[in-house]
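Practice problem. Given the sequence and the SMILES for zinc ion, write out the predicted structure.
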Amino acid sequence: MGKTIRIAELSKKEVDKILRTKKFNRLAPVSCNACGYKGFFKRRIFKIDGDYDVGDDEGQNVVRYHMKQQYNLEYIHFKIHRNINYVDVAFCSKCNSNKVAFDIKLNDEIFDELAKHLNVPEDKIKSDMQDILKRVS
Ligand SMILES: [Zn+2]
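Answer key:
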């Protein structure tokens, strides 16, 4: 028996709901690689189900293949949320390309996790980060 994979697109309502979840939307679209637009990005999100482990290259390649065949989407981002695998795709509001760069949004939750991870007070991390940002910008 061959392995199966199921890809199901979330409805508009389900997309709105999951995007309100901070954890899911931590890695979010920031800029269009085709035209440079930075602003609002439309999203399409797909739930991945089946026998493949989407945590490894083989599983991801199978998903990439089907996303290309079924939806003609190449620039996809893998996410796990509440033990469910998802693919997140963003579309530029200006040129409609889905060649969109994602980045991690820094928020208090991330500082909190960093603080725990590095065993350093959260305030210290925030002030260090601000110093770094000042230097690089
Ligand atoms: Zn664009």
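Check your answer against the key. Residues 32, 34-35, 37, 92, 94-95, 97 surround zinc ion (CB under 6 Å).
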